């Protein structure tokens, strides 16, 4: 499996780590090679050129049965589409696996005529295109009507939180890239609307991004004492923060199927999210989470107030969220789907699978 550094940040790195730690790569005879790592432009180029050489070598001599590409939008798509084109030259089965909430915007608005043609060609010439949700599958079918699309959601481990760890009163967790697209500024505005009626309220922000702008806004809104900035957190720190939170909030403007949301559900936390991307296919309002319109700080504040002041509602949402993960998104369920896909594409052979991720 060739892709982003599994010790890095972001949803794709989380997916890769899970595949490694669950033994899926060993079971499926997958070769993993790092093709992307955070650092200087020179370091990124060096990693990319090294990966390109290895792609050519594997396709020429190792003859992988499948080349599996996990791609985001922009430059990530360009790189991975070239890898897939090389794989097809050597008659490999190919899988295009889409991640990243901005792909619809990239494909529809940012791309010119030539790039739109290349996107369609890449999707339609892939043996299988994996979408994370039904809504993404529908969008991809408009981009590439002849593409063979299969829905395989992200998977997540079930967290191990004792019954005594029910979350600290008023503690809200934001987990993700700290930027406009994740709705962090609306979340700060919502917090400012609640600080007088709920003086104990506390927002914990975990992630990297435009932290200076967010801290400045918190100061301007007079809620600096109600906000903690933890920066990027590793797996153990993330588990601790989920255990301490009363509610998880991700008011994104666009999404695919966010790993952070699934992890919060697996940790049996009540969640407040927006009905964008694949989220409304997972979350039923007032059943296993609360849905609020994106970019609406007033609605977000109302939802926060309700769930923080109503422990029975909070418990019900959390328990149903965990049941949703157990039945639809647990690791055994999703890895079983991937295994069946690999077996179908292999046609019964046991050759190597090489996957290029982000």
From TrEMBL:
<keyword id="KW-0808">Transferase</keyword>
<protein>
    <submittedName>
        <fullName>Glycosyl transferase, group 1</fullName>
    </submittedName>
</protein>
<dbReference type="InterPro" id="IPR001296">
    <property type="entry name" value="Glyco_trans_1"/>
</dbReference>
<feature type="domain" description="Glycosyl transferase family 1">
    <location>
        <begin position="166"/>
        <end position="321"/>
    </location>
</feature>
<dbReference type="GO" id="GO:0016757">
    <property type="term" value="F:glycosyltransferase activity"/>
</dbReference>
<dbReference type="Pfam" id="PF00534">
    <property type="entry name" value="Glycos_transf_1"/>
</dbReference>
<feature type="domain" description="Glycosyltransferase subfamily 4-like N-terminal">
    <location>
        <begin position="40"/>
        <end position="159"/>
    </location>
</feature>
<dbReference type="InterPro" id="IPR028098">
    <property type="entry name" value="Glyco_trans_4-like_N"/>
</dbReference>
<dbReference type="Pfam" id="PF13439">
    <property type="entry name" value="Glyco_transf_4"/>
</dbReference>
